[in-house]
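Quick one, T. Sequence first:
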Amino acid sequence: MADALRKLISVLPSAREASSGAGAASALRSTERETTERETNEHETNEREVALPEQSFSALLPSGRLVEIVGAEGLAARTTTALAVIARAQAAGEPAAWVQLEDGGLFPPDVAESGVDLDALIVVHVPIAAGAVGLARAAELLLRSNGFGVVVVDLTAGVPPGDAWPGRLAGLARQHDMRLVVLTDKGARRGSVGPLVAVRVEAARRRVGAGRWDVDAHVLRNKSGTPLESLPLNRRGPRGAS
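Structure tokens:
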């Protein structure tokens, strides 16, 4: 498993490298180097002055759980909610990873504006041909490494077939006390990815001013034992939005 994980991450660019067009063969920074840079990363995150209220969903989310984020208004609200979880983890000194298909929807400038340290974020680009099964497999390798505080998996293009994969990933998240967040396109009225989802939320955004939106996390299911009534995240929209 360790060899498979090293092989996986040795060919994947970080979020910043991906945004600059560096090739997939660029080696990622090691976990040891990330550890030595944690204080700097936290300082830089604070300087961005991104609002992460203490009662936000990202602050209340318990570890060791499988979390599903759904949404009815495209990917933006789901991505914003998941990035807040990553920013919170990084501020606590925890490494984070994002798993998506090649040419996925993660946009580095928006990631940085959300308070995430691009240099410390590992982004795994799974070949499109591998599909949802490849995404689940990559997530499993990351969870088995016990090297991350949070792993986000973008399954909005489709979920793996069968009902074994949620149990396997949820078990690993619980075993290693890690947060596993999956983004799906199921919507609030459709069934979740499985009964082992401890927390299921619907992310939605609402305009609150010129070019500003609040992103709310409406709790649809909570089996975590932790109250999750949260405050919204206030975010700026794309340039030119009114």
